[in-house]
Amino acid sequence: MLSVDEVAAMHSSTASISSNYPLISAFVAFALAQSIKFFTTWFKERRWDLKQLVGSGGMPSSHSATVTALASAIGLQEGFEGSLFAISFVFACTVMYDATGVRLQAGRQAEVLNQIVYELPAEHPLAERRPLHELLGHTPPQVIVGGILGLLTAVGLLRPLATN
Questions:
Q1: Which pTM value belongs to this model?
Q2: Cβ neighbours of 135 (radius 10 Å)
Q3: For position 100, what pLDDT does the model report?
């Protein structure tokens, strides 16, 4: 059985999470980016793809939106001169660099490997393998649009919430 003090502490931590401007900014930016991907897929391919709500790759980059919103919100809340902003900024840059580098190249390699496996004779042991996931990384425009979305989320949409 929880004591009154333990219940009060749990309520206090729940209230602080729900008012955590950087955390909310990051989650909202992620949700917006994933939702936009869902609808852009429909406009491009004329089909609904629920995987776009949680999948990686595509326009805009939800990874970039998330880390940019986080770093921007930390900078706005804590100041851009502090260590916390510096850490979040370097983290954001690393994530965005990785999305256009390693992850993009891994996705392109998966495309080639899938094509090779597809062309194998049916009796080959690898012919029955499930295809590798190809949409892993992002092109530079996808990362830039994701970053802009994250910045706009933190500054334009949620900044008024932080002042209340």
A1: 0.70
A2: 16
A3: 78
